[in-house]
Amino acid sequence: MGNLILDRISKSYGERKVLDGLGFEVREGELFGFVGSNGAGKTTTMRIVLGVLAADSGTVSWGGAPLDESSRREIGYMPEERGLYPKMKVREQLVYLARLRGRSPQDARRAAEEWMERLGVAERGGDEVEKLSLGNQQRVQLAAALVHDPKILVLDEPFSGLDPVAVDVMSQVLRDKSAEGVPVVFSSHQLDLVERLCDRVGIIRGGAMVAVGTTAELQEQGQAKLLCRVEGAPDGWAETVPGVLAREGDLFTLAPGADEQHLLRAALAAGQVREFSWRRPTLTELFRDVVTGDKA
Protein backbone atom coordinates (compact mmCIF):
# COMPACT_ATOMS: atom_id res chain seq x y z
CA MET A 1 0.00 0.00 0.00
CA GLY A 2 2.91 2.34 0.62
CA ASN A 3 3.98 4.90 3.19
CA LEU A 4 2.26 8.23 3.82
CA ILE A 5 4.90 10.97 3.85
CA LEU A 6 4.52 14.63 4.80
CA ASP A 7 7.56 16.63 3.76
CA ARG A 8 8.24 20.17 5.04
CA ILE A 9 4.60 21.26 5.21
CA SER A 10 4.03 24.94 6.01
CA LYS A 11 0.76 26.83 6.36
CA SER A 12 0.04 30.39 7.47
CA TYR A 13 -3.02 32.55 7.92
CA GLY A 14 -1.80 36.10 7.49
CA GLU A 15 0.96 36.64 10.04
CA ARG A 16 0.08 33.51 12.01
CA LYS A 17 2.14 30.49 11.05
CA VAL A 18 0.14 27.33 11.83
CA LEU A 19 2.55 24.77 10.38
CA ASP A 20 6.28 25.39 10.11
CA GLY A 21 8.14 22.85 7.98
CA LEU A 22 6.27 19.92 9.46
CA GLY A 23 7.40 16.50 8.34
CA PHE A 24 6.80 12.90 9.34
CA GLU A 25 6.14 9.49 7.84
CA VAL A 26 3.43 6.94 8.57
CA ARG A 27 4.67 3.58 7.39
CA GLU A 28 2.68 0.88 5.69
CA GLY A 29 0.90 -1.13 8.38
CA GLU A 30 1.82 1.30 11.15
CA LEU A 31 -0.28 2.87 13.88
CA PHE A 32 1.04 6.41 14.31
CA GLY A 33 -0.08 8.61 17.19
CA PHE A 34 -0.10 12.32 16.38
CA VAL A 35 -0.23 14.31 19.61
CA GLY A 36 0.05 17.93 20.63
CA SER A 37 -1.66 20.67 22.60
CA ASN A 38 -4.83 22.34 21.36
CA GLY A 39 -3.91 24.69 18.52
CA ALA A 40 -0.61 22.94 17.78
CA GLY A 41 -1.63 22.23 14.17
CA LYS A 42 -2.90 18.63 14.22
CA THR A 43 -6.26 19.24 12.55
CA THR A 44 -4.73 21.59 9.97
CA THR A 45 -2.22 18.88 9.10
CA MET A 46 -4.96 16.31 8.60
CA ARG A 47 -6.98 18.66 6.43
CA ILE A 48 -3.95 19.22 4.21
CA VAL A 49 -3.52 15.46 3.83
CA LEU A 50 -7.17 15.27 2.77
CA GLY A 51 -6.85 18.17 0.34
CA VAL A 52 -9.43 20.25 2.21
CA LEU A 53 -6.71 22.83 2.78
CA ALA A 54 -3.76 23.62 0.54
CA ALA A 55 -0.29 23.88 2.05
CA ASP A 56 1.72 27.01 1.37
CA SER A 57 4.72 24.76 0.74
CA GLY A 58 5.74 21.14 1.11
CA THR A 59 4.34 17.90 -0.25
CA VAL A 60 2.17 14.98 0.83
CA SER A 61 2.83 11.65 -0.89
CA TRP A 62 1.66 8.06 -0.61
CA GLY A 63 3.45 5.08 -2.07
CA GLY A 64 6.02 7.36 -3.66
CA ALA A 65 3.53 9.53 -5.59
CA PRO A 66 1.94 12.87 -4.61
CA LEU A 67 -1.57 12.57 -3.20
CA ASP A 68 -4.08 13.76 -5.77
CA GLU A 69 -7.86 13.73 -6.05
CA SER A 70 -7.91 10.10 -7.14
CA SER A 71 -5.64 8.76 -4.40
CA ARG A 72 -7.41 10.82 -1.75
CA ARG A 73 -10.53 8.79 -2.45
CA GLU A 74 -8.64 5.93 -0.79
CA ILE A 75 -8.48 7.81 2.54
CA GLY A 76 -10.84 7.01 5.38
CA TYR A 77 -11.27 10.15 7.47
CA MET A 78 -12.91 10.64 10.84
CA PRO A 79 -13.14 14.35 11.75
CA GLU A 80 -13.11 15.65 15.30
CA GLU A 81 -16.29 17.60 14.50
CA ARG A 82 -18.61 14.75 13.60
CA GLY A 83 -19.97 15.05 10.08
CA LEU A 84 -22.91 12.66 9.93
CA TYR A 85 -26.37 13.65 8.67
CA PRO A 86 -28.38 13.71 11.93
CA LYS A 87 -31.81 12.92 10.44
CA MET A 88 -30.59 10.23 8.07
CA LYS A 89 -30.86 6.60 9.16
CA VAL A 90 -27.63 4.81 10.01
CA ARG A 91 -27.77 2.04 7.40
CA GLU A 92 -29.02 4.37 4.67
CA GLN A 93 -26.23 6.83 5.48
CA LEU A 94 -23.43 4.27 5.39
CA VAL A 95 -24.62 2.86 2.07
CA TYR A 96 -24.85 6.37 0.65
CA LEU A 97 -21.31 7.25 1.76
CA ALA A 98 -19.91 4.01 0.36
CA ARG A 99 -21.64 4.69 -2.96
CA LEU A 100 -20.09 8.17 -3.04
CA ARG A 101 -16.69 6.51 -2.87
CA GLY A 102 -17.44 4.29 -5.85
CA ARG A 103 -18.75 1.10 -4.28
CA SER A 104 -21.46 -0.78 -6.15
CA PRO A 105 -24.93 -0.88 -4.53
CA GLN A 106 -24.43 -4.51 -3.51
CA ASP A 107 -20.92 -3.91 -2.10
CA ALA A 108 -22.07 -0.78 -0.29
CA ARG A 109 -24.90 -2.63 1.46
CA ARG A 110 -22.64 -5.53 2.38
CA ALA A 111 -19.95 -3.22 3.79
CA ALA A 112 -22.51 -1.21 5.75
CA GLU A 113 -23.89 -4.37 7.38
CA GLU A 114 -20.39 -5.67 8.10
CA TRP A 115 -19.21 -2.54 9.86
CA MET A 116 -22.44 -1.98 11.78
CA GLU A 117 -22.14 -5.53 13.11
CA ARG A 118 -18.45 -5.24 13.92
CA LEU A 119 -18.83 -1.91 15.69
CA GLY A 120 -21.86 -2.97 17.68
CA VAL A 121 -24.56 -0.79 16.11
CA ALA A 122 -26.28 -3.34 13.87
CA GLU A 123 -29.49 -3.12 15.89
CA ARG A 124 -29.60 0.63 15.36
CA GLY A 125 -29.29 0.53 11.57
CA GLY A 126 -32.86 1.75 11.08
CA ASP A 127 -32.54 4.64 13.56
CA GLU A 128 -31.78 8.23 12.73
CA VAL A 129 -28.28 9.23 13.80
CA GLU A 130 -29.51 11.99 16.11
CA LYS A 131 -31.41 9.39 18.17
CA LEU A 132 -28.19 7.52 19.03
CA SER A 133 -26.04 8.11 22.10
CA LEU A 134 -22.87 10.09 21.49
CA GLY A 135 -20.82 6.92 21.85
CA ASN A 136 -22.87 5.11 19.22
CA GLN A 137 -22.68 8.14 16.94
CA GLN A 138 -18.92 7.84 17.30
CA ARG A 139 -19.07 4.19 16.25
CA VAL A 140 -21.15 5.08 13.21
CA GLN A 141 -18.67 7.84 12.34
CA LEU A 142 -15.87 5.27 12.36
CA ALA A 143 -17.99 2.96 10.19
CA ALA A 144 -18.40 5.86 7.74
CA ALA A 145 -14.60 6.15 7.55
CA LEU A 146 -14.21 2.43 6.88
CA VAL A 147 -17.18 1.51 4.71
CA HIS A 148 -15.38 2.11 1.40
CA ASP A 149 -12.38 -0.08 2.37
CA PRO A 150 -9.83 2.75 2.63
CA LYS A 151 -6.11 2.25 2.03
CA ILE A 152 -5.16 5.08 4.44
CA LEU A 153 -6.83 6.01 7.73
CA VAL A 154 -6.70 9.54 9.16
CA LEU A 155 -8.62 9.92 12.42
CA ASP A 156 -8.96 13.10 14.48
CA GLU A 157 -9.69 12.30 18.16
CA PRO A 158 -11.47 9.01 17.38
CA PHE A 159 -11.63 7.91 21.04
CA SER A 160 -13.16 11.10 22.41
CA GLY A 161 -16.19 10.38 24.60
CA LEU A 162 -16.08 6.60 24.24
CA ASP A 163 -16.65 4.20 27.13
CA PRO A 164 -13.96 1.55 27.83
CA VAL A 165 -15.78 -1.17 25.88
CA ALA A 166 -16.08 1.05 22.81
CA VAL A 167 -12.41 2.04 23.17
CA ASP A 168 -11.45 -1.64 23.08
CA VAL A 169 -13.61 -2.24 19.99
CA MET A 170 -12.17 0.74 18.14
CA SER A 171 -8.61 -0.14 19.17
CA GLN A 172 -8.98 -3.63 17.75
CA VAL A 173 -10.37 -2.28 14.49
CA LEU A 174 -7.34 0.00 14.11
CA ARG A 175 -4.97 -2.86 14.90
CA ASP A 176 -6.69 -5.04 12.31
CA LYS A 177 -6.51 -2.35 9.64
CA SER A 178 -2.82 -1.75 10.28
CA ALA A 179 -2.24 -5.52 10.09
CA GLU A 180 -3.72 -5.35 6.58
CA GLY A 181 -0.96 -2.88 5.65
CA VAL A 182 -3.00 0.32 6.03
CA PRO A 183 -1.05 3.31 7.39
CA VAL A 184 -3.12 4.65 10.29
CA VAL A 185 -2.57 8.07 11.82
CA PHE A 186 -4.74 9.40 14.62
CA SER A 187 -4.66 12.25 17.09
CA SER A 188 -5.67 11.86 20.71
CA HIS A 189 -5.29 13.53 24.07
CA GLN A 190 -5.58 10.13 25.77
CA LEU A 191 -1.84 9.58 25.96
CA ASP A 192 -2.02 6.35 27.93
CA LEU A 193 -4.02 4.90 25.05
CA VAL A 194 -1.58 6.27 22.48
CA GLU A 195 1.32 4.74 24.42
CA ARG A 196 -0.39 1.35 24.56
CA LEU A 197 -1.67 1.25 20.98
CA CYS A 198 0.78 3.00 18.68
CA ASP A 199 3.90 1.71 16.96
CA ARG A 200 5.33 5.23 16.88
CA VAL A 201 4.36 8.65 18.19
CA GLY A 202 4.95 12.16 16.87
CA ILE A 203 4.68 15.21 19.11
CA ILE A 204 3.86 18.54 17.46
CA ARG A 205 4.47 21.91 19.09
CA GLY A 206 3.88 25.28 17.48
CA GLY A 207 3.34 23.74 14.04
CA ALA A 208 6.58 21.76 14.02
CA MET A 209 7.34 18.15 14.87
CA VAL A 210 9.57 18.18 17.93
CA ALA A 211 9.80 14.45 18.72
CA VAL A 212 9.15 11.26 16.72
CA GLY A 213 9.79 7.64 17.65
CA THR A 214 8.56 4.61 19.47
CA THR A 215 7.59 5.14 23.08
CA ALA A 216 10.80 3.38 24.12
CA GLU A 217 12.89 5.66 21.89
CA LEU A 218 11.21 8.77 23.27
CA GLN A 219 11.67 7.52 26.82
CA GLU A 220 15.39 7.13 26.18
CA GLN A 221 15.51 10.86 25.42
CA GLY A 222 13.96 11.66 28.80
CA GLN A 223 15.76 11.55 32.12
CA ALA A 224 15.21 8.43 34.19
CA LYS A 225 14.24 8.87 37.82
CA LEU A 226 14.64 6.62 40.82
CA LEU A 227 11.50 5.34 42.47
CA CYS A 228 12.33 4.94 46.14
CA ARG A 229 9.40 4.13 48.42
CA VAL A 230 10.26 4.03 52.10
CA GLU A 231 7.83 3.31 54.93
CA GLY A 232 8.32 5.00 58.29
CA ALA A 233 10.92 7.50 57.09
CA PRO A 234 10.98 10.95 58.73
CA ASP A 235 10.38 14.07 56.66
CA GLY A 236 13.46 15.33 54.93
CA TRP A 237 15.36 12.07 55.22
CA ALA A 238 16.86 12.48 51.74
CA GLU A 239 17.78 16.16 51.88
CA THR A 240 21.50 15.61 52.43
CA VAL A 241 21.99 12.58 50.18
CA PRO A 242 24.82 13.27 47.69
CA GLY A 243 23.72 13.53 44.06
CA VAL A 244 20.00 14.11 44.65
CA LEU A 245 18.88 17.07 42.52
CA ALA A 246 15.13 16.97 43.07
CA ARG A 247 12.39 14.94 44.70
CA GLU A 248 8.74 14.55 43.71
CA GLY A 249 7.12 12.30 46.28
CA ASP A 250 8.86 8.95 45.87
CA LEU A 251 10.60 9.94 42.62
CA PHE A 252 14.18 11.22 42.80
CA THR A 253 16.19 12.96 40.11
CA LEU A 254 19.91 12.28 40.42
CA ALA A 255 22.80 14.29 39.03
CA PRO A 256 24.59 12.76 36.02
CA GLY A 257 27.01 10.11 37.22
CA ALA A 258 25.66 10.11 40.78
CA ASP A 259 25.79 6.80 42.66
CA GLU A 260 22.29 5.59 43.49
CA GLN A 261 23.74 3.49 46.32
CA HIS A 262 24.02 6.66 48.42
CA LEU A 263 20.25 7.04 48.20
CA LEU A 264 19.65 3.36 48.92
CA ARG A 265 21.83 3.43 52.05
CA ALA A 266 20.04 6.54 53.31
CA ALA A 267 16.66 4.92 52.61
CA LEU A 268 17.59 1.74 54.49
CA ALA A 269 18.69 3.84 57.45
CA ALA A 270 15.49 5.90 57.39
CA GLY A 271 12.87 3.12 57.29
CA GLN A 272 11.66 0.04 55.41
CA VAL A 273 12.44 0.17 51.69
CA ARG A 274 9.44 -1.22 49.80
CA GLU A 275 10.53 -0.31 46.29
CA PHE A 276 13.76 0.88 44.70
CA SER A 277 14.01 0.97 40.89
CA TRP A 278 14.81 3.16 37.93
CA ARG A 279 11.78 4.53 36.12
CA ARG A 280 11.60 6.02 32.64
CA PRO A 281 9.12 8.86 32.02
CA THR A 282 5.67 7.96 30.73
CA LEU A 283 4.43 9.36 27.43
CA THR A 284 2.26 11.79 29.40
CA GLU A 285 5.32 13.10 31.25
CA LEU A 286 7.34 13.29 28.05
CA PHE A 287 4.53 15.15 26.32
CA ARG A 288 4.27 17.67 29.14
CA ASP A 289 8.02 18.28 29.12
CA VAL A 290 8.28 18.53 25.33
CA VAL A 291 5.34 20.89 24.79
CA THR A 292 6.45 23.19 27.61
CA GLY A 293 10.04 23.15 26.41
CA ASP A 294 11.35 21.60 29.62
CA LYS A 295 13.76 18.71 29.69
CA ALA A 296 12.30 15.42 30.86
TrEMBL record:
One annotated GO molecular function: ATP binding
InterPro entries per UniProt: AAA+_ATPase (IPR003593), ABC_transporter-like_ATP-bd (IPR003439), ABC_transporter-like_CS (IPR017871), ABC_transporter_ATP-binding (IPR050763), DrrA1/2-like_C (IPR025302), P-loop_NTPase (IPR027417)
Principal location class: membrane
Gene3D superfamilies: P-loop containing nucleotide triphosphate hydrolases (3.40.50.300)
Every ABC transporter domain range: 4-231
UniProtKB keywords: Antibiotic resistance, ATP-binding, Nucleotide-binding, Transport
Annotated localization: Cell membrane
This protein's record includes keyword Transport: yes
Membrane topology annotation: Peripheral membrane protein
Similarity remark: Belongs to the ABC transporter superfamily.
Name listed for the protein in its UniProt record: ATP-binding cassette domain-containing protein
Organism: Actinocorallia libanotica
